[in-house]
Structure formats: C-alpha cells, structure tokens
Amino acid sequence: MPPTLASLLHHSALRLTVRAGGDRLDVPVRWVHASELADPVPYMEGGELLLITALKLDAEDPEAMRRYVKRLAGAGVVGLGFAVGVNYAEIPKALVEAAEHEGLPLLEVPRRTPFLAISKAVSAAIAADQYRAVTAGFAAQRELTRQALSDGPEGLLAALASQVDGWAALYDASGAVVATAPEWAGRRAARLTADVERLRERPAPASSVVGAGASEGGGGEDQDRVELHSLGTGRRPRAALAVGTAAALGTAERYALHSAIALLTLTTERSRSLQAAEQRIGAAVLRMLLAGEPDHARAVAGGLYGELLDAPFRIVVAESASPPVGQGVPVGAASRPTAGALVAADTNGDPLGGLAECLESAAARAGEAVLVVPEGERLVVLAVDGGAAEAACGEFAAAVEGARAEVRERGRGLGDASASSSGRSDSSGSSGSSGDEDELVVGMSGPAGPIAAAAAYKQAEQALSVARRRGRVLVGHEQLAAGSVVPLLADDAVRAFADGLLRPLYEHDATGRGDLVASLRAWLSRHGQWDAAAADLGVHRHTLRYRMRRVEEILGRSLDDPDVRMELWLALKTTAAVGE
Known about the structure:
Elements: H1 5-9, E1 17-20, E2 31-34, E3 48-52, H2 62-74, E4 79-83, H3 93-102, E5 106-109, H4 115-164, E6 167-172, E7 177-181, H5 185-190, H6 193-200, E8 207-210, E9 225-231, E10 239-245, H7 251-269, H8 272-290, H9 294-301, E11 313-320, H10 339-347, H11 351-366, E12 370-375, E13 378-384, H12 388-422, E14 440-444, H13 453-470, E15 474-476, H14 477-482, H15 492-510, H16 516-525, H17 530-537, H18 541-555, H19 562-579
Parallel strand pairs: 2-3, 3-4, 4-5, 14-15
Antiparallel strand pairs: 1-5, 6-7, 6-10, 8-9, 9-10, 11-13, 11-14, 12-13
C-alpha cells in the first residue's frame, strides 16, 4: 500500500503528533512538499502533505487561517505539517480551529525532526510500494501465462479476475461474449456489446471506461468500473477484453491487465508465419479435393479440419471487384460481425475479408470446422452442409443486399431532389448504386462429398456467374434448377445471337409484307398445330402455312428440325425479355 498519514504517525523516528483531522489519516500521501508561500495552491497537484513553519503567515489570525486552510483543502492537500519551535513555540489555536473546521489533518512536527526526514520516509514508502507492485505484477504475469498455456483464454480470464478482485470477459469483434470469469458475470458482460462494437470502430489499440448497467438482482445500478480494451494488431480488432472492478486499478492490477492483453492478443492474432502455413495447408487440401484425391487431402489436413472432409459439405466461391484479401483471415479466428459490421466491411473495401471472418466466427462458435482459402480476388470455402457457416453466409449476403438497397434508395432520393431543383426529370433509370452491385458476388454449390468436390466447385462457379448477371450477392445452385432458364438468357452473346438470327424476319415485316415474327411465335407456342395457331392469329391455316414457308426461305433453315425450332423459340424469348 502507498504511504498514508497514519503510517507516518507510526514512524517512530519522525515523532509526529495529530492536532486536527484525526479521522482522516488513512488518505494516501502522493508526495511531500515544503512551502512558505502565502498561497502555494498554484504549485500543488493534489495528494500532497504540505510542510510549513509559518514564516510568512499570520498563523494567529483566525480569518487568515480559515482562508488559507480552505484553499489547501480545495486543492486536494491531504495534510498539513507544522514545525514547532521555529517561528511558533506551538501550533497557533487559529490554525488548529481552521483545520478542524475544514477536516484537514494537522500534524505537529517537532523541532528535532527535519522536513527532509519526512520527505525521505514518504519517498522510501512510495518506492517500496512500487517495488511490491512490480514484483506482484511479474508474479501475476507468470500465473496468467501458465493459465493461458494450460487452460487457454478461459483459464487466463479466471486468473485475471482473481488478480484484480473483479470479473473479466472476452468478446469477439461483434461484441458477442466468448467467455467470462466468474460465470456469474456473463449477463453483466452481455450488456456491454454495444460499447464493444463502438470500441471496434476505433483504430487499435483502443480502450474506454464504461458502466456495467443494472445489477444481477435488478435492484439498482452496478457500481462496477469497467475497462474495455481492443485486442489485435490489425486495422480491425479481432476481440475485446472487459475488466470490471469496484475501484480504479492499482499498479499491480494494471500490470496484470496489460499482461492479459498481450497474451490474449497473441492468442487471437497468432504469428504471420503460422497464418501463412495454415493457408498453404488449406490451399493444398483444396487442390487435392478438386483433383479427385480425397485420401491425400485427408492425410495432409490431419485433424486440422476435423470431420469436414468426411461429411457432406458445400463449396462457396466468392469474388470481389475490390482489392484482394491479401493475407486473409486465419482459420479459427473468434469474431462474428453484426449486420452493421458486415456492411462496414463491404463498404470499407474488404468484403471478402468480412465474409471470411463471418463464416469462420460462426463455425468456431458452433464447434464446426471450416476451410477458407483466399485466392487473390476470390475466396473459396468448404463449409458443413446445413451448418452455422452456411447460415452465416446467407445472413452476410442479406445484410449486404439490404445495405445496397438503402444506398440505391438514397441515390434515387438525391436524384429526384436534384431533378426537382433544376426543373428537369431524370429518365435514365439510374439506381444511384454507383456500381456497388459488382463489389461482392457469391455462388454456393449443392451438398457434396469429398469424391464429388470438383463437381461441387463447378456448381458454385455456375451459381456465381448467375449471381453476377442477376446483380445478386448470393445465388445457390439449387436456385438454378428451381427457376426458369429464361433469365439465364440475359447475356450479351445470347442477345447478339438472337438478334442475328431473327433480323431477316424483322426486316421483312418492316416492309409491311407480312407478320412473320408473330406467326412464327404463335406456331411454335402451339407446337406446330396449324389450326390452333391460325386461330390465335385470326388468319386461315393456309395463310399460316404460306408464312412458315417464307420463314424457312428467308432463314434458310427447315422448321422440321427440332434444333432449329428450339433455337428460334429461345431467340424469340430472348428478344421478348429485352423488350420487356
């Protein structure tokens, strides 16, 4: 403990006695200062024991002493030492009464006790207290390290809570509670998720002091002082640590907290070489699966991915027009962004990193294995079929879709306002999205096993291509089979083929010599039934027969060929879709 007025009174060599304020002697003494100024307050910081001889004070003037003592108490001076036998044989009554009135401890310093001896005693006590704090801090560091190595983050949190005589909680990047110590602190820690998310938005390392909210019993407010600290060395913190105590942390507790932050940062970040090694293993495992070598893939993966390579899984392929993921995200990182964090990740230029972080976090929280392989501007993921990572992928896509819809709405609103102010209307149909639909596209395969990994990868790529054409964030392979083939025709090459194939018919009809395009559409829709198609057109069936012969002559193709009929029907559907 730091020195107090009481400890100085018990120092036999100093021979100090109390003349006033005897009930306030347990206040810590931060320093000793001697001053004969009539107003030493400008030179005080608070917490000092002020020593005087009253050389320039009228210590017998009650009004002057009241003003003097009041200023000292207001400045945070914890005690006043008066040397007797120098200017006054004893402490004047006016000073004693003023000190009693303000509650300021007044100590009598005998003539044979120099002020320097008091200063040395306080300095020695402060140094001893600091040494004890440092020693205790090193001991705490050793214990925290031992617990981290033996029991992981949970053991470290338990040791930290014991060291600070409070509670501790570990959060992921979204503010979700990962672990607490003691267990009763779980509900209390959960109330701080919003504060953790705000802390995440600040550059690392960041910290803040917050309140803990209502007490467990519901009968008032907790008096905890809670410190929040971000964990991580990158641009986006991977986790956060909360420590709740009844009072501000002392030096030893501060050492323990800083040690815990360092150890947890190492746990969550790990070394770059380990990240690179895990990514190389994951890439090798993926290549072996796609090459049809599942046994070799299992041998290389070992236990790194658990039973992922034996159970049905889905392959997710994601691409981004933004800069590549770079170093990627290490497998097992414990963080789960909220919808707001997902949107931030997408708009901050790293949607692939945000997606990887989300999927790995969901898998870690569910106890699942997940394989994430960054490939430049592409991300390939193997996730358990029907598992938490698959669900998180859908949630991520929905959050990004929602954010982009909001951006488009704001853009339309700004466009309408601009058009109104200029007296013009915008008929361009611009959505105001600034092309953000192309920032992230994701394709997901159907369920597959290790032997069918290559086929699942092709399914994911097909779904990815459709997602890009449709302006969607995520498309699953099942959606392709469940929908119509017509939307897939919205491709420049398909439209060019349709235009080229039907152009002679459109040019013929433009001369007013017949309605070959409408006749062809009616005839094909009726599967070549002349009477039904003629009735739809309101013409005689001989007229329809003549028109179909003209179609064959102009196109140079036979309508008896089923391939020709199929191509013409798809061409008609494509041009109809463009017209709509």
